[in-house]
Each structure stands twice: as C-alpha cells, then as structure tokens.
Design brief:
The chain is α/β, with parallel strands linked by helices. The protein contains 5 helices and 5 strands, in the order E-H-E-H-E-H-E-H-E-H. It has a single domain, classed as Rossmann fold (3-Layer(aba) Sandwich), CATH 3.40.50.
C-alpha cells in the first residue's frame, strides 16, 4: 500500500514513515504542505496521512481540496497535536476518516489505519 505523508516538519514525516515501516508499510512519498501534496498525489496513492498545521496550505484545506477533486474516496488519517473535540469534529466534517493525536506509537498508528481500512471495506 502506498502512503502520502504530509507534514511541514521533516522530523515528523520521518517519524511517521519509520512507524509505517515498522508496521509493514514500505511505500511512502512525502510532502511538506498541502500544495506540494496535491502536486504529488496520483492514482498510485492508496492512503493519506496529513498534519493539520502547515504553511501555504494546511491540512484541512488540503483534505477539502482532495475530497473535491482527485481523491474523493481516498482514506485520510490526520496526525496532529490538536486534541480538542471541536478540532476533531471539524476534521471529520472536512473529510478526515480518523484522527491521531501526537505523540503516538506505531501500534496506535496501525490501529487507526486498520480502523479506517476496515470501515471503508465495510462501506464498499
């Protein structure tokens, strides 16, 4: 499965990519913000993991653009420091399938990915 990992922090992208590799997902491409992510997105991407707070185009705007355009059904997981209920609701309304609050463990990431994939298979 090919992941698109979007975060303005290179360190955080590395943590997410390394976590994905630890749980068995080897194929990842990375972007530093939503604009770059949209330019990299194509049909080979099977799952998106994005941060909320980024320059140029933040996570919510990126998710909305993806949902309105090239990725209306792509699974999206938001990984962010924002943890208040209103933020989680706002992310869901934008089209995020699930939500992880930083810091996280590879096991938590795996559980959230499995939840999203399971829910999408159930809806198909």
């Amino acid at each position: 499965m090919k992941f698109l990992v979007v975060d303005d922090s290179a360190t955080m992208r590395r943590i997410v990519v390394n976590s994905l590799k630890r749980i068995g997902y080897e194929e990842c491409i990375e972007a530093g913000d939503g604009q770059e992510a949209l330019s990299l997105y194509d049909d080979s991407v099977e799952f998106v993991i994005t941060d909320w707070n980024m320059p140029n185009m933040g996570g919510l705007d990126f998710v909305r653009a993806l949902r309105a355009g090239p990725g209306p059904n792509i699974p999206i997981l938001m990984v962010t420091t924002r943890s208040v209920r209103e933020d989680i609701v706002q992310a869901a309304q934008a089209g995020v399938n699930n939500y992880v609050v930083k810091p996280f463990t590879p096991q938590v990431l795996k559980e959230k990915i499995d939840q999203v994939l399971g829910a999408m298979q159930g809806a198909a």
